[in-house]
Amino acid sequence: MITKGTIFDLDGTLVDTLDDLTDSMNAALVQVGRPARPRQECMGMIGHGLRKFAERAVGPDHLELTDALIERMAAHYIDHCVLKTTPYPGMEEVITTLSKKGLRLGVLTNKNQAPSEIIVRHFFGCAFDPIVGAADGRETKPDPQTTLDILAGWGLDADEVIFIGDSETDIQTATNAGIRCVACEWGFRSKEQLVEAGGEILIREPGQILEFIG
Question: CA dist 138 to 42, 111, 114, 161, Å?
Fold first, then answer.
């Protein structure tokens, strides 16, 4: 079956957001009286939404600070989400090529909706529709419903779409939705972690995405 649509994760897949996320989380941690977290430590906390990130950052003995941390981190991040963030090398060219080929392109992320839209439009213009982030009343990955909603909106079947992501959450999301997953080794998880999570198709650089497009 020819691929007609591609759903991308955002953080660690399309763009490297780690420095901006780390900076905003650490600014918020200081505000609530908790120590900053190293960059590599933050990388392992990302991928399950802001609340999980905040809970892990604040630590199990200080979970009562989670809501305050979320509020401060979100407020800082919305104004600082494209300062250090960059697309992965070659990704802009890949998206341009896919767009010219007429593929439907969407983003599905557990990042909050507002910064997701800012980042995607800042780097990729109008290439992606829809851009779906975390919002009240919306299930996050790995729940498959939003993925299935995207397919329905595009009018495409599961075997006409691939899911591209960099984490165990993305692999599980694709599996739950019954679509193929292409796992990226350049993101926030190691090759070993992706294989352990059930990743079967792994790629090392963005240009390889074009190999899956008929």
Answer: 25, 12, 14, 22
Tokens of 104: 């439907």
Per-residue pLDDT tens digits for 95-107: 999 999 999 999 9
**Token output for 110:** 């557990």
Return the amino acid letter for 183. Answer: A
> Could you report the per-residue pLDDT of 144-203, keeping only the tens digit for each?
999 999 999 999 999 999 999 999 999 999 999 999 999 999 999 999 999 999 999 999
Q: Catalytic amino acids?
A: 9
Cα–Cα distance, 13 to 140 (Å, whole number): 17
Domains and their CATH numbers in the chain: 5-16+85-212 (3.40.50.1000), 18-78 (1.10.150)
Determine if the peptide bond prior to 35 is cis (ω within 30°). no
What's this model's pTM, rounded to 2 decimal places? Answer: 0.94
